[in-house]
Amino acid sequence: MESNGEGNVWFKIHEDGYTADDDKWCVDRIVASKGLWDIPIPSDIKPGNYLLRTEVIALHEADRVYGEDEDAGAQYYPNCAQLTITGTGSAVPSGVAIPGLYKPDDPGIHFNLWDGHKSYQIPGPAVYAGGGATTSNNTGSNGAATVDDVQTQELASSPEESSTSAGRKCIRRRKESKRGKRSKRNSKRSKRKSKKRDAHNIIYK
């Protein structure tokens, strides 16, 4: 790969969040499709080796900013896959840097899931429009970008994923759970129905 992932090399090709008409989140649609998700690959992307980063952001503790207490803040669940993209495109979209993609008080990162919301602002950069798209499980034609090879690797959340250091918090919570140390706030929040939302798909070369 030509990049080690540093700098403004990440660009978004897909996102999904909340739809008010059916009161559904992206994770509801992922569950309904049994974990399968078709990702459109912009047809004008320059051929080469890319890293696809998908991410689900859990919002059940996001009504408080990270650092407010030990359990506060959004939680991040990323995965990555190596892709080889072929086609006749030449576009190299401008991108953003990771970490640094989100701030703790960004709309969509600091968000109250429990207040009867009617909308949700997906955080991060705008989706790259591209020159049309095919889905990642199609062979494609007429110069459309296609995926020749996919290698997946599940990545645990870590402080490097964003400025909110969600992974460190999750590790700490697991250790505390084993010791049986739960606060009154944790007990109350454990009764809530946990919801996760938003699959970001970002690739870089």
From TrEMBL:
Q: Which Gene3D superfamilies match?
A: 2.70.50.70
Output the GO biological process annotations, alphabetical, semicolon-separated.
cellulose catabolic process
UniProt lists compositionally biased (Polar residues) regions at 152-166
Q: List residues of the Auxiliary Activity family 9 catalytic domain.
A: 4-117
Q: Which reaction does it catalyse?
A: [(1->4)-beta-D-glucosyl]n+m + reduced acceptor + O2 = 4-dehydro-beta-D-glucosyl-[(1->4)-beta-D-glucosyl]n-1 + [(1->4)-beta-D-glucosyl]m + acceptor + H2O
Q: Which family does it belong to?
A: Belongs to the polysaccharide monooxygenase AA9 family.
Question: What's the protein called, per UniProt?
Answer: lytic cellulose monooxygenase (C4-dehydrogenating)
